[in-house]
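Example S7 (structure tokens).
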């Protein structure tokens, strides 16, 4: 009950403030690249509950870069997203999956599509991508448990090696 009172009070204060306008803000053009798994689901909720009620996103171009969409379109969706990002110059990208051999079977894909990030860097003249690790032996791929680390891919670092350094501490 107290939570709903706080929420109602916060909404009233926000809507009566000089910062709120009854009109929705109009967002500038942007290429929005949807990803997969929990990041896709989380961003869907954020867009539906906290963005779209207040911001007109009609100028955004949306692209689904899930493994299934890339497989069904023979990667045309990736080429279209890269072209859109190059044209518009403003891009938001959710994390995507570069499927492993196991995931190709699990998702029923025609083949293991390569990482979309290299095509994006080439198409957009270089970008930095922050993402979580690709694979740790003994841990099933996907979002089943929290991930507490990340690595950065810059330039052509896909050939860079990695090694297990043991357990860490928080």
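Recovered sequence:
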């Amino acid at each position: 009950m107290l939570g709903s009172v706080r929420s109602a009070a916060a909404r009233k204060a926000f809507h009566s403030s000089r910062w709120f306008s009854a009109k929705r803000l109009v967002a500038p053009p942007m290429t929005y690249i949807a990803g997969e798994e929990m990041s896709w689901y989380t961003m869907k909720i954020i867009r539906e509950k906290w963005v779209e009620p207040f911001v007109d996103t009609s100028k955004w171009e949306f692209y689904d870069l899930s493994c299934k969409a890339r497989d069904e379109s023979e990667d045309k969706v990736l080429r279209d997203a890269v072209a859109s990002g190059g044209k518009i110059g403003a891009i938001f990208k959710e994390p995507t999956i570069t499927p492993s051999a196991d995931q190709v079977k699990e998702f029923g894909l025609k083949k293991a599509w390569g990482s979309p990030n290299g095509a994006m860097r080439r198409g957009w003249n270089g970008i930095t991508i922050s993402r979580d690790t690709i694979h740790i032996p003994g841990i099933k791929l996907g979002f089943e448990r929290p991930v507490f680390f990340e690595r950065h891919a810059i330039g052509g670092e896909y050939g860079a090696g990695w090694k297990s350094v043991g357990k860490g501490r928080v």
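Notes on this example. The mean pLDDT is 78.
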